[in-house]
């Protein structure tokens, strides 16, 4: 079994490299923080009482991803956050998180807020989906 490469000088085929692996950094000794992912839907009375829009409680009908990251002993000014379509990259002097997101997001439309009393960074990202019979708005 031999894989044909588009370029004779390459040592692997582009299909062999997992998506998002360019962000993996196994040599960084910083600790990975605890985090929690939840999904948020925007529903109205037409959804709750009448079921007119066809939304259900599954993640397929959610508009936002909310990620809560615990960052004890961290100041707001120490946090570096980068968002790409499928990757969240968070770095502090003591912690590092490279999170592959479950759905593609709109990296330009997001919010982050640091809750200093709880020492939690809350990141809300808009899911980027193709329009279908459920997600039509």
TrEMBL record:
Q: List, in alphabetical order, the Gene Ontology terms for molecular function in this entry.
A: dynein intermediate chain binding; protein-folding chaperone binding
Set out the biological process GO terms recorded for this chain's protein.
axonemal dynein complex assembly; flagellated sperm motility
Q: Which family does it belong to?
A: Belongs to the PIH1 family.
PIH1D1/2/3 CS-like domain segment(s): 32-127
Compositionally biased spans, kind Acidic residues: 16-26
Pfam families, per this entry?
PIH1_CS
Of the GO CC terms on this record, one is: cytoplasm
InterPro entries, alphabetized? DNAAF6 (IPR026697), PIH1D1/2/3_CS-like (IPR041442)
Q: Where is this region: Disordered?
A: 1-27
Q: What is this protein called?
A: PIHD3 protein
